[in-house]
Amino acid sequence: MANILLTNKCVRECPYCFAGQEMAHSPASEYISWENIIYLVDLLQASGERRVSLLGGEPTLHPEFLDILLYLIERGFNVVVFTCGIMSKTKLDDLKEHVAGLPVAKVNFVCNMNNPEQTKTSGSETEKLHAFLSALGPWTMPAFNIYRPDFELDFIFDLTRRYRLKKRLRLGIAHPIPGAPNESIRVEDIGPVIERLYAYKDAFDRLRLRPSFDCGFPLCRVTDEQLGWLVRLSGQIDFKCKPAIDITPDMHVYCCFPLSALNRKSVFEFDSFKQIVTYYRGLQKRIRSEMAGIYEECGGCHHRSEETCAGGGACQLVNRLDPAKLRDIERAHGEARLSS
Amino acid sequence: MKLVCPHERALIDRLEGRTVCVRVDAARDIAAAAADVRRRNTLSCVICESVPIEDIEIEDDWQGVPIALMAPSVGRFRNVAKKAAALRKLNLRIYLPCEADNLTGARLLASLGIAVCIDFGAAPDWEALADLMTYALLGPVPHAPIDPFQTIADGYRQAARSDDWGRVFFDDPSRTLHLDAEGRIALSRRDLKAGDFVACDLSKLDSAEVKHAIEQRLDAWRNLFAEDHFCARCEAWRICRARMCDGKAAPDGCDAFFHEMAEVIERRRGKPESNRPAEKWRP
Fold first, then answer.
1. Closest residue of chain A to B88, computed from CA coordinates
2. Does the beta carbon of A165 lie under 8 angstroms from any beta carbon of chain B?
3. Fewer CB under 10 Å: which end of chain B, C or N?
């Protein structure tokens, strides 16, 4: 699934933000154009894609966000919107009016929420988030980025119950962005993070709230007992790391935010979306051929070789690679021919 | 020969047995105008001066009526989205003036399966128009026809004279004549607006003088060559047919645009015909 970045602007300053560096290097005034939206939708449709994600920055800041959302739905796409839910009353009223008649499967707001007791959050921010959830709760999936080992999730359970949010919680580990000062989870803290998550088992079970993992969780740090619980509750748990395919408002494309500086290209260099995915899979493969995973033991791990676990996020590997080696990878991949 | 006339029932009745495009000033008159023509004539289409597409109120009895909707703009998509499915079902082509937002709007509507046509006007933004033309002819996924590009490409002949695409705008006197409410006859929309009539009575419709005027207009291109006009030396002549110059100076940029279009049409030949949605009426 492609991620289309509608704008580089954002209304929040999350300490763990993995898009911060990318946004800092892009003009804040830039919004994606309609021509580019239509081009991308055609590209995706021609490749048989039926799902697309809208990101930013904060995608709802695009002046025509609602129009773009409705256009994608009209073109037959299921749309995921990654939002913080902070928007003006007028914008929220418009959104509510148009989304209220849509099936919940057509549009999914993944609302990234910070714990106001652990992350600096203004009163008006909280107020706006609650207004958003109150208006669009049934279309909204809660999401939480873990950036400190002592994270607390009680507020998520409360909001999920109160606003009848979708019963799936998207959990991400904040990874270190190469060269950026974002707060993140150290590799050695991933095990304790999973332990802490498991401590919330009863709350998850009571609410039937199913956790799902974003990329970078290693399978080996989950015990059999924890895995059994996760699979029973969620049905399926993923320990992979795949190219996100982020497309910027000016039509650049890269593997994912943390790898945005590596082999960044123009969308127009590719003939199909499949070709883009293949290209960035190749990049990840090159990275992993230099370093199998985030732990020493990843090299000989059968989960790694059987691809049931990616061995952590590629961005974590990039952080550990020698910069000269990284440049070699980028150069070698840049010279690789695009597959047709 | 099609006759474009206003929605005047008495006039329409006098045209009994002919093929008629009837003009109305408001969308609410579309169904009534179509019914009035169909009583004694063959309806080619209803030409309607419209409000922006976002404001248009679609009526059930437009089903089965070929409609040319002359809209000033598309409007915000959030308002158009509610009507997209209904618009798609109609036998409709939306005409838009060549303005930046409308070029985007045309692409957007076509991508949703709604046939559109851009009226170039006198001084279009050729670069933006070229982008739309490329999308219209080489777009990677099926979309509705975007005219006049589609008509030009369909009528393009490599080794012979290409078809005159003026018919898209009802401006081809070999196929279409224009009448005012009094039955006076003009060769084009522009002539009609300017009050430039070739005959002042409907009874002259099949007369030798009207036929002569038509032939003269159709042969006017020869003057460009006789006078060594810029257009007569332009490589893109085979496509544009000097429709942009109006016998005077050609607007800046038109030669590059039509030249590019010829290249795009050649590239298009090598591609399988894109799987276009159901064909709408054609002018």
1. A74
2. no
3. N
